[in-house]
Task: inverse folding
């Protein structure tokens, strides 16, 4: 992949996978200083501002979400105007999120997905619980499960959107399991075909990874 071209790095994964903590570890060499737009953290920032302003509690989430979206769109437009690389941390669990990617692709950007996941939804729920104890934001377990499952469904369906897909295991720290470029597996390790989220959630990619591993043995 030619990183001299304008590139959108999409960092995604289920809630609690560790994206925000380890995002810089999942960027190519030379891109460590590119700051990502974290939708959740940005919304929480605006929620705190609205609380100080005395906005009614039942309006804060909606207003903060709108402020976050406006901020994101402004940063995206500026990056596209300047043809700068952009790092976006976002779920891919709903088709609406894909409009962000479309705006970059329509402007000639190449898109890389770095996906960090855990093998069990229960581990994601536990991670979020620990995050809340440390002062982080809460996410309902049902929401975590929905994002976990829908992310994989949409990636499997729209995988050709991405020039490069990198799959990471996040149980301890991000460990690269497989890299797919232009639809071809160019790197994989044995653990990749042991992960349930790859085998069951990304069957098309799992098939290519299995074939790659047979050829390198």
Result:
């Amino acid at each position: 992949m030619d990183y001299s071209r304008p590139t959108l790095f999409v960092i995604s994964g289920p809630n609690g996978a560790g994206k925000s903590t380890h995002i810089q570890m999942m960027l190519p060499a030379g891109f460590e200083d590119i700051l990502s737009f974290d939708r959740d953290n940005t919304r929480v920032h605006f929620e705190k501002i609205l609380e100080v302003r005395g906005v009614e509690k039942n309006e804060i989430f909606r207003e903060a979400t709108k402020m976050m979206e406006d901020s994101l769109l402004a940063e995206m437009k500026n990056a596209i105007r300047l043809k700068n690389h952009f790092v976006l941390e976002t779920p891919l669990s709903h088709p609406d999120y894909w409009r962000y990617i479309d705006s970059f692709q329509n402007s000639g950007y190449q898109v890389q997905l770095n996906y960090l996941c855990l093998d069990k939804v229960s581990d994601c729920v536990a991670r979020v619980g620990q995050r809340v104890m440390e002062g982080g934001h809460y996410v309902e377990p049902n929401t975590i499960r929905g994002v976990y499952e829908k992310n994989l469904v949409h990636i499997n369906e729209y995988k050709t959107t991405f020039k490069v897909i990198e799959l990471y295991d996040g149980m301890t720290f991000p460990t690269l399991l497989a890299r797919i470029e232009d639809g071809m597996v160019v790197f994989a390790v044995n653990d990749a075909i042991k992960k349930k989220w790859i085998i069951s959630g990304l069957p098309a990619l799992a098939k290519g990874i299995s074939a790659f591993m047979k050829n390198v043995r």
